[in-house]
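[Meeting: bench + compute handoff]

Bench side (C.D.) handed over the final construct sequence. Compute side (W.E.) agreed to return the predicted structure before the next meeting so the bench team could plan truncations. Sequence as handed over:
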Amino acid sequence: MTGPLSGVKIVELAQMIAVPGATHLLANQGAEIIKVENTTGGDDLRMYGSRKGNMSGWFANANAGKRSIGLNLEKEEAKEILRTFIKDADVFIEGFRPGQFLVWDSR
């Protein structure tokens, strides 16, 4: 998609509605969004409200226009893949409590 954010790459590591909803708006402006979901749980929004299979309407709307990848973030190899995505991105947006991502990444 073209728009004022064309060429901007954003990596998203979050679930539910706040961050995915915000990055959906950025995707609508042309940003490339890569949503990373933990394969050990996934995004809880998938099961919120009415759904078809493992995808609710809420999830489909908040994540439209994004690319996605599932990673088992308990494994070091998957963490390294995520770190590579982050290094290649213009923006990394996550939905953890302040400082929590750094604690998680150091485990």
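W.E. noted at the follow-up: The chain has one domain: 9-106. C.D. will use this when planning the next construct.
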